[in-house]
Amino acid sequence: MQSTEPPQSAQTEQSPHPTERYVTVKDAAQVFGISAVVVYRLFRAGRLPGRKFGRSYRVLREFVDGFDAEVRAGRGVDFDEYADAWFARVSEGAA
Fold first, then answer.
1. Is residue 85 part of a domain?
2. What is the CATH number of the domain that holds 47?
3. H or E element: which one contains 84?
């Protein structure tokens, strides 16, 4: 008989679907207007917030959505400046 409950490793108490907080590298690349290869490089260099799920990298949705909102608002957004400001807010606990 199979259990109808998901395996414990697939679910955490804090978030039943942790990948909802993250976007794929491909989606992030599209929003940032860069290639997926560059997204991987930025991620590995610590310039993108996110994590690795198994063999897949994911970028924090909050970061990607914030960048996208700035662009859609018509603001000239420099990625490095946006990333620096975002990480500064996080380190201060304000993000």
1. yes
2. 1.10.1660
3. helix 79-92
* Residues β-bridged to residue 52: 57
Give a yes or no: residue 4 inside a domain: no
pLDDT confidence band for 40 (50 / 70 / 90): very high
Spell out where 12-67 has E strands. Answer: 22-24, 50-53, 56-60
User: Among the residues of the chain, which ranges form H helices?
Assistant: 25-32, 36-44, 61-72, 79-92
3-state secondary structure of 53: strand
Instruction: Evaluate whether residue 54 is within a structural domain.
Output: yes
Token couple for 11: 């679910």
**pTM of the predicted model as reported, rounded to 2 decimal places:** 0.74
Q: Which two tokens stand for residue 39?
A: 């997204």
